[in-house]
């Protein structure tokens, strides 16, 4: 497909310049670029045989932010990508660019939220439901499938903890942040307490709905 598109572009008089890919966001595997670079090199080779000299590979984003789990050091990504480029392109190293997103700004943001309700769903249910004033529609869209688990901080973090299901404030039944794997939060947590959601510098304000359920979009303050 990429070969056909680049060849068609060339035929139409455009400059077929290179290949872009993205290996998947929050990429914890430092070797993930290897396969894509192999494919890119194959595209370069095929097009060179047809007289089209590509010049650039855009390595995309994917560099992770530290949430709850540790992530590899940025240097190990550099070393692995450098080795993969040399392995697949030999002496004909192309121009390269990267498009880091969350890896660059994820840890630059914190969301300040408030507990608006704490409840249990029935008399025989012990797991607490903690409702925040922000949910999936207010900027935490990346909690979808509980894929991104943000670190949470409260002023009661030294207290005994209990598993809690975390939910947002809207009436939408999808507005549950963490249920499959509940969060351990202080038993002393009360309505009105502040919770800081860390690592929220990427994919939060930009995902916030305009006014779903009457909630204002997430405000951002740049310090
Ligand atoms: C084309 C493109 N490049 C780069 C990025 C940044 O990705 P990441 O935040 O995983 O580094 C994205 C994210 O959506 C993207 O669509």
UniProtKB/TrEMBL annotation:
One Pfam family recorded for the sequence: Orn_Arg_deC_N
Domain annotation Orn/DAP/Arg decarboxylase 2 C-terminal: ranges: 107-201
InterPro entries: Ala_racemase/Decarboxylase_C, De-COase2_C, De-COase2_N, Orn/DAP/Arg_de-COase, Orn_de-COase, PLP-binding_barrel
Highest taxon, organism lineage: Bacteria
One Gene Ontology cellular component annotation held by this UniProt entry: cytoplasm
EC number: 4.1.1.17
Protein name per UniProt: Lysine/ornithine decarboxylase
């Amino acid at each position: 497909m990429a070969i056909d598109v680049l060849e068609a572009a060339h035929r139409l008089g455009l400059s077929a310049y290179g290949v872009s890919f993205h290996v998947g966001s929050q990429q914890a595997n430092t070797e993930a670029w290897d396969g894509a670079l192999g494919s890119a090199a194959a595209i370069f080779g095929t097009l060179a045989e047809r007289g089209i000299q590509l010049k650039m590979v855009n390595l995309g984003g994917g560099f992770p932010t530290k949430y709850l789990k540790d992530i590899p050091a940025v240097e190990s990504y550099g070393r692995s990508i450098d080795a993969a480029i040399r392995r697949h392109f030999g002496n004909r190293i192309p121009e390269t660019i990267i498009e880091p997103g969350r890896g660059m700004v994820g840890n630059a943001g914190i969301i300040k939220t408030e507990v608006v309700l704490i409840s249990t769903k029935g008399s025989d249910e012990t797991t607490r439901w903690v409702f925040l004033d922000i949910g999936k529609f207010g900027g935490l869209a990346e909690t979808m499938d509980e894929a991104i688990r943000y670190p949470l901080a409260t002023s009661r973090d030294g207290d005994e903890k209990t598993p809690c299901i975390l939910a947002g404030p809207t009436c939408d039944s999808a507005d549950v942040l963490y249920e499959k794997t509940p969060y351990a939060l202080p038993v002393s947590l009360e309505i009105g307490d502040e919770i800081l959601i860390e690592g929220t510098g990427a994919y939060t304000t930009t995902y916030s709905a305009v006014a779903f359920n009457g909630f204002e979009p997430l405000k951002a303050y740049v310090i």
